[in-house]
Amino acid sequence: MDRLPRHKSLPLIIAHRGASGYLPEHTLAAKALAYGMGADYLEQDVVASKDGELIVCHDIHIDRVTDVADRFPDRARDDGRWYVRDFDLAELRTLRVHERLNDAGDAPAFPNRFPADRGDFRVVTLREEIEMVQGLNRSTGRQVGIYPEIKEPAWHRAEGFDLSRAVLQTLADYGYRSKDDLVFVQCFDPAEVQRLRFELGCPLRLIQLIDAIAPKVVPEQYEAMLTEAGMAQLASFVDGLGPWFGLLYELADIDGHPVSTGFVKLAHEAGLAVHPYTFRADQVAPGFETDGDMLRWFAETLKIDGVFTDFPDRSRVALG
Fold it and tell me: Mean pLDDT over residues 268-274, rounded?
């Protein structure tokens, strides 16, 4: 397998849901701002609507980022949540997208970001976002890539929709057909990542996402991936890893300074790139004074290959 080039000199700047530190996530405004701030790639989380449209939204639920509960109060499922899959595109177009609310749904998740009661932002399809990125690539002369995530593919199949197949077809329709193209495809589901490569014949660069509740609390499905043997196996069908950044470092017992867990070294030895998530100026991790300090340490000490960030401008400045 052709291996992903690791790296020019600086980590890739991947705009996490766009410039989501400044504008509501996954809106065209947030993506255009991230593009203008110098991001190398823009991320798209992808889910499916009732009529099979590919919608850019972080969750299969839509009630934390829109006014769906006000507009369609009787359309929640038994769990009290509103699902993208229960609305067709025309209905989704009527919703106002706003800043993300917390898990309780009663306050902004990030209080100092864009006011949740302001603006007129709308739901976006994957096709619309790709067309905007490709249009900007043409008009600016820059070459910025896309970074779609296939969200909960097994859930979608249980709903009667093959999300992975639809995403790959859409990408092919827009000319993303090989590892030379500016696209990464990412997914948390290990079985689906293998299905993408082997059953669906995905010719693109694949990223296995790795979740964790805390640095030493890793879900069982990811535990084996953190070993040398696990990474060697992953390298037979993926091009890189997208771990939660807390898996890459820990604080030294003696002085509390950050030290490497060895994750990046193992990944690089297996030929895998590492794109950790998510770096936020308003949520700096323990062991670091500022987001800039954190970014520089991860880049210079760990030699990461890319960084998911809500603040692409700050990340660009920090990394040079």
Answer: 98
| Per-residue pLDDT reduced to its tens digit, 41-85 | 999 999 999 999 999 999 999 999 999 999 999 999 999 999 999
Residue 26 a catalytic site member: no
Q: What is the 3-state secondary structure (H, E, C) of the chain?
A: CCCCCCCCCCCEEEECCCCCCCCCCCCHHHHHHHHHCCCCEEEEEEEECCCCCEEECCCCECCCCECHHHHCCCCCCCCCCCEHHHCCHHHHHCCCECCCECCCCCCECCCCCCCCCCCCECCCEHHHHHHHHHHHHHHHCCCCEEEEEECCHHHHHHCCCCHHHHHHHHHHHCCCCCCCCCEEEEECCHHHHHHHHHHCCCCCEEEEEECCCECCECCHHHHHHHCHHHHHHHCCCCCEEEEEHHHCEEECCCCCCEEECCHHHHHHHCCCEECCECECCCCCCCCCCCHHHHHHHHHHHHCCCEEEECCHHHHHHHHC
Give catalytic status of residue 268 as yes or no.
Answer: no
Model's pTM, two decimal places?
Answer: 0.96
Among the options 16, 26, 156, 275, which is catalytic? 16
Which of 7, 26, 58, 268 is labelled catalytic?
58
Domains of the chain by range and CATH? 12-60+123-319 (3.20.20.190)
